[in-house]
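User: Run a structure prediction on this.
Assistant: Running it now.
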Amino acid sequence: MPMEVAPAKTAFVLAGGGSFGAIQVGMLRSLARRGIAADMVVGSSVGALNGAYYAGDPTIEGNPAAGGDLARIAPARRLSGFMYRRDFLVTSDGLRQLVNRNLPYLNLEDAPIPIHIVTTDILTGRTVVLSKGSAAQAIIASAAIPAAFAPVQHGDLYLADGAVSSNTPVKVAVAQGAQRLVVLPTGSPVPSTSLLWERSRTRCTH
């Protein structure tokens, strides 16, 4: 009875980290040059933005420096929340325009590579994963840093920065069926043993 080892399903896991998310663009390009591709993408906060771009065009040329753009959104309006007595500092208009201008798909389920966006329910603190519906809304929710951006209403939930509940959503990727993880951090260097994790799987064929 021959044993066949099925190809491991690879997930790119993109961590949160604000403007430091720009370094993930270089990581994605390096992976593309080496022929390492993802079967799914899981992103949190700025990692959701970069991951969504990658899921739309996983080529070397298709990875814009989204993390840097996020840090530059509407800098002149960052104090407008104080001026107009809002509960947040920055509107999501700039981020929405950035996403709508660059993302080649409207809904998450239409992405060429499956994409899972990690957000946080601000009332319970639990992780909420979005895999279908408006891509722009999901990304805005995942990047909505509390107090800086307004939370995004999703049904009965109010969603905010995915980094609050899961900055590096490895567990989400495993729950979605990944056996091989490529983690793209934004902060301190991660030990090499943590960058690539693979759970072996075998399948018997008769």
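The two ends are 6 Å apart (CA to CA).
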